[in-house]
Amino acid sequence: MANGNFVDYVKIYLRSGNGGPGSAHFYRAKGITHGGPDGGDGGRGGHIILKGNRHQWTLLGFKYRKHTKAPHGGNGSENHRHGADGDDVILEVPLGTIVRDAETGEIEFEMTEHGEEKILVPGGRGGKGNSFFKSSTHQTPRYAQPGEEGIETWKILELKVLADVGLVGLPNVGKSTLLSVVSAAKPEIANYEFTTLVPNLGMVQYRDDKSFAMADIPGIIKGAHEGKGLGHRFLRHIERNATLLFCISADADDMQGQYDILLNELEHYNPELLDKPRLLALTRADLVDEELKELRKDEIPKGIPYLYISAVTGEGVTELKDRLYQMITANREDEAGEKTSMEEE
Predict the structure, then answer these.
(1) Among 31, 48, 54, 287, which is least packed, fewest CB within 10 Å?
(2) Based on C-alpha coordinates, what's the Rg of the chain?
(3) Cα 91 to chain center, whole Å?
């Protein structure tokens, strides 16, 4: 997908439908001049509903649809007829979409499941007809409720890419090349910084028809959490990656320094990111021989498992997929155990 087609932040105007008014009607027929109240209720106004769709990965559609209005409910009528409900408007969004109130910035909910539906803006309730107000002490109510007005509001939709593995690294360390080798994704690749301007998502095929999602996040630089470079605009995408794959070039002058920069930026943006499982890939292993690897062994960042890989020769790629899949599986089992414990409590 072209860079210009990736949209991960939009502000949209929404208006749900008004509820229809109830009817204040009395039954009339030949020979019956004083029939009782038979006014029906008005219909509900249309909701505006968000629906999760795993086949979408951008909010591009909302770039051209900034205003959405739902239909009004129908009027109640005689013979206790209920007005028709206004049709709901369903807006499909990628998984990982967060909804914020435009005025307060408060997060309202997040879409995480395919097919999941949540009411974004409820439609107005329909008014009650006069038959609803009939009682033993008040047999001829001559009034009915008006319909409730719909809600008019602005919302912010913010996308955080959902992936099993997120590629984290400084610009131009081979993240896009790695993604293009292990998946069918076709990110832009060139020998200069900030080639990747939007997150790229690819499905990595594993053994026995298994697969997992890998996201190439645009390069981080020192000060990214303060808005430098591509800023924190894309740091938020890392929040929804289950496992982090740090990428540092095997021929880098200061591997520990680069690793410290990455950790520092993640920690300043969101300290919880440091709790995610992580693995270090020393990319471009074809540029260093075994002797140099041994000489630079003490320069490799401490406290993180690592392996050498080369997207050119294929060195370490199979082992990398094995390690990542094991980490993903272990993480899923931990999450399932935590969920079970919470349900039991």
Answers:
(1) 31
(2) 29
(3) 13
Residue-wise DSSP of 185-203:
------SSTT---S-EEEE
* Mean pLDDT in consecutive groups of 10 residues from the start of the chain, 345 residues: 63 97 91 86 97 86 91 95 96 92 92 94 96 90 95 92 84 84 64 51 82 78 50 66 91 91 86 90 92 90 92 91 91 65 57
Instruction: Give yes or no for a contact between 68 and 14, defined as CB atoms under 8 angstroms apart.
Output: yes
Contact 36, 139 (CB under 8 A): yes
Residue at 311: amino acid letter: A
Kind and range of the H or E run holding 243: strand 241-249
Please check whether residue 126 is in contact with residue 46, taking contact to mean a CB–CB distance below 8 angstroms.
Answer: no
User: H or E stretch including 333?
Assistant: helix 317-344
Judge contact between 45 and 148, C-beta under 8 A: yes
What residue type is 218 in one-letter code? P
CB–CB of 121/47 below 8 Å? yes
Residue 293 CA to residue 300 CA, distance in Å, equals 10
- pTM for the complete prediction? 0.67
DSSP class of residue 14 equals: E
Instruction: Supply the angle between the helices 317-344 and 175-182 in degrees, to the nearest 10.
Output: 90
Q: How far apart are CA 258 and CA 256, in angstroms?
A: 5
Report how far residue 201's alpha carbon sits from residue 216's, in angstroms, rounded to the nearest whole number. Answer: 6
CA-nearest of 123, 122, 127, 118 to 93 is: 118
- The secondary structure of residue 158, as a DSSP letter, is E
